Amino acid sequence: MHMADALISPAVGGIMWATTAGLIAHCSRKISTTLEGSRVPLMGVLGAFIFAAQMINFTIPATGSSGHLGGGAILAILLGPHAAFLTIASVLTIQSLFFADGGILALGCNIFNLGFWPCFVAYPFIYKAITGQNPSRGRIVTGAVLASIAGLQLGAFSVVMETVVSGISELPFETFVMLMQPIHLAIGLVEGLVTAAVVTFVWKARPEILSMARGVAVRTAPSFNGVVTGLAVAALVTGGALSWFASAHPDGLEWSMAKVSGKEELDAPADGVHGMLAGIQEKTAFLPDYAFKAPEHEAATPEGEAPAAWPAVDAGTSTAGILGGAMTMLLAGALGLFLKKRQHRA
Amino acid sequence: MSHHIVEVQDLRFAYPDGHEALSGISFRIHHGESVAIVGANGAGKSTLLLHLNGCLVPKQGMVRIGDFPLTEKTLPDVRRTVGMVFQDPDDQLFMPTVYDDVAFGPLNLGLPFDEVDARVRSALATVGGEHLAKRPPYRLSGGEKRAVAIATVLSMSPNILVLDEPTSNLDPRARRNLITLLHGFEHTKIIATHDLDMVMDLCDRTIVMHQGHILADGPTREIFDDDRLLDEGHLERPLSLR
Amino acid sequence: MPKIDTSLFEIGTLDRLAAGNTVVHALDPRAKLVATLAFILTVVSFGRYEVAALLPLLVFPLALSIQAQIPGPYLLRKLLIASPFAVMVGMFNPLLDQTVLLHVVGTNVTGGWVSFVAILLRFALTVTAALVLIATTGFAQVCMALTRLGTPRIFATQLLFLYRYIFVLTEEGLRMSRARALRSFGHRGTGLKIYGFMLGQLLLRTMDRAGRIHRAMLCRGFDGEVRLNRHLRWRRKDMLFVCGWLGFFALARVFNLPQELGQMLLKVIP
User: Fold this and answer.
1) Which domain does C191 fall in, by range?
2) Which residue of A117, A140, C142, C267 has the fewest C-beta atoms within 10 A of its own C-beta?
3) Per CATH, is A5-244 categorized as 3.40.50.720?
């Protein structure tokens, strides 16, 4: 479910980063003011635990294929929402930096998709609600499974929205959704069962860990309702609207840059904007009163409109582009060799 | 006068699950002494050690370190006086590099940058680890980790060193190096260990613990000559005495 | 997710590379961080059909990695390992976007292929830049630079601790995994229930470890704040580095450099 940089438009990436950064700042403040210093090593070590857990796989019952743990739900149950969010953020950061699992721009999206939903939605509204003050085995299992499924479904849906609104991948909305949701339903179920198994184990062996974690969650719960949800919702709504707008100017940045440098190619994008808008709206319309468009329609739409019109490539410029591109590569290579020679001499 | 004396009086401790780990421990250790605490697993050695620098605060009985009786309030002072090296160095080396770990203590004491730097270098030099300063902990061998763990405590300039199983998991050479190192320290040393040969080399006095109380407390040589006593404590003669 | 036991080794390699001694290594970590972030933003801001215009940006990771003596094959290998994901999703583009954009040497090239290549190129650029950053700065320094640039301390501390203990814990996990492998046959013994037990044990041990670490921290005077004793000095070199590269990125973004170059050449060539 990790997204790569290449698929996110700067607008979407930027907005999600802003949201995530805000959440990180909020959680950090929350932790330093309300929780004791013992959280610090615990969070680090539990994050490492998730890495280790992801390394060990298990065979999924009916299928025989192997699966592994995601970790969001377990962290939320053990640490409370704020510490868990930071831990998930840190795990994803390291994965993105060292294992190239997703890009840096996309990191904001990934942290949100994999962290926000399990910690601030699934955990409080589903797990905590179901397990209550005195959990029983049945409740733990149900709570864990439902919370995992919900968290992953919401996360998967976020991925779809972010990708589609970015407009870089050509995958149409309906296809993408039909791909992502069922797969993640299955993944969510498995993750839920694993989470349930681990939590039940801990609960039987050392119940005080769970009640302590719950105490933490309860103590810090009241404010999250107001601030975080408000923050996140506002960010999402504005973000959604802005990205809509930004994607309508396919690469709003390039468009304005081109205007600044005064190139002729400009006129084409201006015409294309409306077509693009229409294209986008058709792609993402999913409300019941709109009919679902078949994917081929998608490819057909651009014909008379935007994508063909911009970036106004004609034979002359394209040859120039290719020639220039080749020269650039040669120059870059030459620079590389030059630097290497200097290295050896030095 | 009560200058760096470690005094324990009738210390008792029971874990939350009811298990009584210490059932009335009393002893007194003077400045500069080198004392070994030996006994079977479960005898209460680690629990006792935890009381010596305030990780556990006595609920029954008294612990006195130098001028301070051990209470919640005197914890910071006690921790400045007593440096504790734990069994698993990985628990003690938690910073990105060796330098950071050794600097952790002094920085927390609020010392200025240059002073911290001087202390770190001196501590690392003492344990022979200057070349390790920039290494991350996961790239250290067992012996190196042990040495660095000691340095992390030395940089706080404690008067008393408490070590929990310092030679466990060390190869013979690393073990010998460690023993030589400890030999050179003038601090008061309290060492909990199974390594009875090291005790012979290093400690003049030995306290034998068994099931939460003290079986014997006296000169090392005498204790290791007493087969009946050793047997009662689930111990054996060290190899060098056989 | 790539296999951790080999990837762990790679973290070690990155750390080793970061301990190097070149001009690049000596730069202030904040400078390198800012430049890399600006680079990534620039790359990602290009339109989806822009391929040629992206090419000049290759210079940034190329120049840095050579100057910092980071082995090219190593970077390539990491890129290859990570590439399947970008390939997988970008793969649909040639199928779905059939509009012909260019005519090259007699063949029609569709928008789908152009955007696919663009995706791959952007992927290569951003991933390499991130790797080069870590390989020339080291993770701890990057975290510190982050705090100086406004990241909350607790989060930076979390990153450091996580990084520190990944090795310890994954080794424990690996040992458990091996032990299980020795006692399981086919699909027996690797099911969900066992997995639950294993993770449960590992978790309890982990929490105990956390307690011990906390204890060790308290014994050394921990008061809630983790301090790193390093002095960062911003020098002229660092300023030049940042301004120079940022200027270049802006240039490459506004002007389609290869295009310009090509047009110039076309004028020259009869």
Assistant:
1) 187-224
2) C267
3) no
Q: Is B9 exposed, middle or buried (0-12, 13-18, 19+ CB in 10 A)?
A: middle
- Closest CB to B94 among C213, C219, C223: C213
Residues near C110 by Cβ (< 8 Å), separated by ≥ 6?
A: C94, C97, C98, C99, C100, C101
CB atoms within 10 A of CB C262: 24
**pLDDT-based confidence at residue A227 (cuts at 50, 70, 90):** very low
Whose CA is closest to C69, among C18, C8, C33, C105? Answer: C18
The minimum CA-CA distance between C234 and chain A, rounded to whole Å, is 25
Q: What is the pLDDT of residues B89-137, one digit of tens each?
A: 988 898 888 999 999 988 888 888 889 999 999 999 999 889 999 888 8
Eight-state DSSP code of residue A127: I
Burial of B112 from C-beta contacts in 10 A (0-12 / 13-18 / 19+): exposed
Please indicate whether, in this complex, the C-beta atoms of C15 and B139 are within 8 angstroms of each other: yes
Give the C window 96-155 contacts with B, CB below 8 Å.
139-140, 143
Give C41→chain A minimum CA distance, Å.
Answer: 7
The reply to whether C49 and C156 lie within a common domain is: yes
CA B62 – CA B58 distance, rounded (Å):
6
Q: Among the CATH numbers 3.50.30.10, 2.60.40.2250, 3.40.50.300, 2.140.10.10, which is that of B6-237?
A: 3.40.50.300
Model-level pTM?
0.75
Q: Under an 8 A CB cutoff, do B79 and C165 touch?
A: no
Among residues A140, A210, A197, the alpha carbon closest in space to that of C197 is found at: A197
Same domain for C70 and C128, yes or no, is yes
Q: At A86, phi and psi to the nearest 5?
A: -60, -40
**Nearest chain A alpha carbon to C168:** A48
Q: What single DSSP character describes residue C116?
A: H
What ipTM is given for this predicted complex? 0.80
DSSP conformation class of C15: H
Residue B107 sits at the chain C interface (C-beta within 8 Å): yes
Q: Tokens representing A266?
A: 């400009």
Which chain A residues are Cβ-neighbours of C217 within 8 angstroms? Answer: 37, 40-41
For position A64, what pLDDT does the model report? 54
Report the distance separating Cα C156 and Cα A89, nearest Å: 11
Amino acid (1-letter code) at residue C202: L
In angstroms, the separation between the Cα of residue C239 and the nearest Cα of chain B is 26
Question: Is C58 domain-assigned?
Answer: yes
The rounded distance, in Å, linking the Cα atoms of C68 and A307 is: 41
More confident residue, C89 or A52: A52
Q: Which residues of C touch A59 (CB under 8 A)?
A: 187, 190-192
C192 lies in some domain:
yes
Query: Terminal CA-to-CA distance of chain C, rounded, Å?
Result: 53
Are B92 and C216 within 8 A, CB to CB? yes
Subunits close to C (at least 3 CB pairs below 8 A): A, B
Nearest CB to A55: which of C56, C120, C177?
C177
Our CA-based measurement puts residue C178 at a distance from the nearest CA of chain B, in whole angstroms, of 21
C-alpha B162/C-alpha B37 separation (Å) is 10
Domain ranges across chain A: 5-244, 249-309, 316-346
Asked if A321 lies within 8 A of C90 by C-beta distance, the reply is: no
